[in-house]
Design goal:
Blueprint lengths: L3 H4 L8 H8 L9 E4 L13 H4 L4 E10 L2 E10 L13 E7 L5 H12 L7 H14 L8 E7 L3 E6 L2 E6 L2 H12 L6 H7 L5
Antiparallel strand pairs: 1-2, 2-3, 3-4, 4-5, 5-6, 6-7
Length: about 200
């Protein structure tokens, strides 16, 4: 993308570039931002599908991503007892994105790889493999859809779409880099990371 600040943003991962292209309202004067919502647990934060997949889970933090004033998605992070942010990749957790705009699976896959490359060097061959895997598990999303990624320690990532099984990517390194888009200190959206980890001890 020609606009440098968008390329360096959290991708609006999932991603605002497509939304701006379809609306024709791209703005170049205001920087991307992640704004925190209240971390008080409410009825809308209850996810019964996590009961058996993430025993004893609790909501750690939640936030909303806005880019140039456009609402992109709400993010929620559920963790298990003893969760430590610095070792997120070696612990069980669930990260949910509730979309506030429509995105294609290709947009999600492309932007995910761009952001994953912030944390590690990824070969073109590996990127092609992971892109294909993302296209397999990520649907076209509409406003209101929820995608939840569950970190399966040492195995990879399991994905739920609106609470139903959506597929699995069995690659622990993929999972580390993918969830690092939001949880790694190298994230391009540090305010979002801070909000998601707000409840950490």
């Amino acid at each position: 993308m020609a606009i440098k600040c968008v390329k360096n943003s959290l991708l609006g991962l999932l991603l605002v570039s497509a939304a701006l292209a379809t609306t024709g309202h791209a703005q170049t004067t205001s920087p991307p931002e992640a704004t925190a919502k209240s971390n008080v647990v409410s009825a809308e934060d209850h996810r019964p599908e996590l009961g058996s997949l993430l025993p004893q889970h609790r909501l750690l933090g939640k936030t909303r991503l806005r880019v140039w004033g456009f609402q992109v998605y709400d993010a929620r992070l559920w963790v298990t007892p003893g969760f430590k942010p610095a070792q997120f990749a070696s612990q069980s957790f669930a990260l949910e994105l509730s979309y506030l705009r429509d995105f294609t699976s290709a947009d999600i896959a492309e932007r995910s790889l761009e952001e994953m490359r912030r944390s590690a060097t990824i070969s073109d061959e590996q990127a092609k493999t992971w892109t294909a895997a993302l296209l397999r598990v990520m649907p076209e999303v509409k406003k209101g859809d929820r995608i939840t990624g569950i970190n399966k320690v040492g195995e990879g990532a399991l994905f739920l779409v609106n609470g139903q099984p959506g597929g699995e990517i069995r690659d622990a390194e993929f999972a580390r880099l993918f969830f690092g888009i939001w949880l790694s200190p190298k994230t391009s959206e540090p305010q979002m990371r801070t909000a998601l980890l707000a409840g950490a001890q």
